[in-house]
Write a structure and sequence with these properties.
272 residues; alpha/beta; Rossmann fold; UDP-galactose 4-epimerase, domain 1; 2 domains; six-stranded parallel beta sheet; globular
């Protein structure tokens, strides 16, 4: 068995690869491979892989907002090139890492059948990615195609300035972090749970599937500060978002259909 992982050297990719016993074909920008470049589809086509995990994306939302064209090039055009390379020899399974961002913000648990209402270019890029994969599934119904809508992923060695690594670094260095809105709830899921979920979802039956991957638990920034026991912080008005809100994923479907459940407790991880 051969597995293609795009974004193999990224945050999730580094935790996914050790779970696989297959021969791995790695594609990553750090290896000098850009999915948006001409010839990407041909390079993928000659591999004839059995499984594809498409993780490669621009996903740090502040950067995406400042660079919408680059975000769409990587997240949409790059995925189009991957799928084009798989047309001649469709794999048995494709797992695409979508995002909770496709739902937009809402105080209610977001379920897979809810309307999609993203608030930024990153969320829209993931909506388009899901549509591309669903269209591929219609052309190749023998392939298992899964859009995995990930909650906020955290864990060791996160390369971006997401809120949890920012707070952990502030505590370690005894700094006073400048934060934005403290009240919105987000669903935080450990990267090892995400990797496990992606492997689980790859074993679904042929056809197109959509699953939330999260914990179903909302946590505010104020609660994160409390869990870390680091009381020093200040508010940066430039980081305040007028259109902020809650985003928590309902996970009954993945729990019921596959038996998968997130095993890392945010409280226990932050206390360790």
């Amino acid at each position: 068995m051969t597995t293609l992982i795009t974004g193999s050297a990224g945050f999730v990719g580094r935790h996914l690869s050790p779970l696989l016993d297959d021969e791995i074909v790695a594609i990553d920008r750090t290896l000098g491979q850009d999915l948006t470049e001409p010839g990407t589809a041909m390079r993928i086509a000659v591999q004839e892989v059995d499984t594809v995990f498409h993780l490669a994306a621009e996903h740090f939302v502040p950067w995406c907002r400042l660079h919408p064209v680059e975000t769409l090039l990587t997240n949409v055009s790059g995925f189009m090139n991957v799928l084009a390379g798989l047309e001649q020899h469709p794999p048995e399974r494709i797992v695409f890492t979508s995002s909770a961002a496709v739902y937009g913000l809402n105080p209610m648990l977001r379920l897979e059948g809810d309307p999609l209402d993203p608030v930024d270019v990153y969320g829209w890029s993931k909506v388009i990615g899901e549509e591309l994969l669903e269209a591929f599934s219609q052309r190749h119904p023998e392939t298992t195609c899964v859009s995995a809508r990930l909650a906020n992923v955290y864990g060791p060695d996160d390369p971006h300035e997401h809120i949890i690594p920012v707070l952990l670094a502030a505590k370690a260095n005894e700094d006073i972090p400048a934060l934005g809105n403290l009240w919105p709830q987000r669903d935080y899921i450990h990267v090892d749970d995400v990797a496990d979920a992606l492997v689980t979802l790859s074993d679904l039956a042929p056809g197109y599937h959509v699953y939330n991957v999260g914990t179903g638990i909302g946590t505010t920034v104020m609660q994160l500060i409390s869990l870390l026991g680091w009381p020093s912080w200040t508010v940066d008005p430039d980081k305040m978002r007028d259109n902020d809100g809650h985003l928590i994923l309902g996970v009954h479907k993945i729990n019921h259909d596959t038996g998968w459940i997130a095993r890392h407790s945010l409280q226990e991880v932050l206390a360790a």
